[in-house]
Amino acid sequence: MTFFRNFNYRNWYIFSLLLLSLLPVTxxxxxxxxxxxxxxxxxxxxxxxxxxxxxxxxxxFARIADVSTTGSQVFGLEKDQLLMRDLVFDGKxxxxxxxxxxxxxxxxxxxxxxxxxxxxxxxxYKGYRWLHKEFVxxxxxxx
Length: 143
What we know:
By secondary structure, the chain is α+β, with helices and mostly antiparallel strands. It folds into 2 domains: about 1-35; about 40-140, Beta Barrel (Lipocalin), CATH 2.40.128.520. Helices cover about 25% and strands about 40% of the residues. It has helices at about 1-5, 10-35, 70-75, and strands at about 40-45, 50-55, 60-65, 80-90, 95-100, 105-115, 120-125, 130-140. Strands 1-2-3-4-5-6-7-8 form an 8-stranded antiparallel beta sheet, with no helix packed on it. The protein is globular and about 75 Å long. The relative contact order is 0.12.
């Protein structure tokens, strides 16, 4: 009973501020979990070659994981070659990144968005976002 007797509005106010100060810490970890759903292997539209998305700090990168004969000949793909870099999760998708064309070395803007747990769209653009090309990447099926 002494706890309730000594518990006044000032203590309640301090207790409330303490609880509110902890909320941003817990929401960030939830945001990180959502951002990490992109990690892993993704197949290109032709399903012959794949990329592996990985995280370094708060940024996401993608490198070539498997290369098909067509991917090697037509696009100049090489295993472990960096394809995308510096993507940052903004709460809705991964933006601000660059795609490095494997054959020419040209740099393009790239944004990634999850459609569902197995599908992701990559929007690649040069300069203006309304001049873009979209690619659909899928997760490989587990055997």
